[in-house]
Amino acid sequence: MTDSVAIVRSKLRIRNDLMRCFLSEFTCTAFLLFAGTSANASNLFGGGDCKVCVSFAWAFAIGLGAFAAGNLSGGHMNPAISFAFYLCGRLSAYKFILYSIAQLFGAFVGSLLTFFLYYDGIDHFDGGNRQTVGPKATIGIFVPSPQDYLSISSCIFDQFVGTALLAFCVMMFAEPRNKIPPVVQPMVLTMTIFLVATCVSANAGGEINPARDLAPKLMAISVGYGWEVFSIRDYKWFLIPAFIPFAGAAFGAWFYHLTLGIHINEDNEDDKMDSHVEMNKVNRVTIGNSRIAIPK
Which residues cross the membrane (predicted)? Predict the structure, then answer.
């Protein structure tokens, strides 16, 4: 039987690295937003309040996305994480911009797919009146909001700490000297995302991803929710998840490298150290009743 996949690959495979990376980040971010926001919708319309289940869905979506794109773009799916790799010299400025654009487009498309999938459910729930506040609000499917009691400074700290924790863990996985098998990294990343979501989601939904916040808001405007999606906390909140994660990711990435990463020995550093010790050993010879140390 003819291998049709091999034939298609030989004809359609993209050779340009930038285009491959763009397509990779776009596809995986779209998958992430589709899976995550669909889990939000299922939880809302299913009548349950299983926040743990939703956290699992987001975590597994990120893990699968990272696994799928690992050999192409790395599967960042988050402009803040791409920014952290850029600051650490592992991603060019051009690729950082390209990744961010792809992630924004992917997040828009992924959340839009969820809107179409649950269109009837949304209509049934809100009566066709797209709402951002109140008991019939459905905007939370796509964009979480901070708790009413949360101050602006706490919102900022929440986004900073959550993204810093995420970036710290991502840099740990990406560090070659840690020798984490690539096939295991997505599974460990899944557990990490679940940990982060469990730790920080209560305050403001645990967004810690500018693309995951901004793109669904733009999508919501395009399908009838209106500009009210930006009006939370007198238009102050939308700036926080859009910009603070970049600072948090930068801090978390460099905190890892300064406290752990740069102190890990290279594979051959221990051998060099052992050789240095051997070179500095002394020969001891016996002359009469005395032992004399003769440096090598």
Answer: 57-75, 96-119, 149-174, 186-204, 237-256
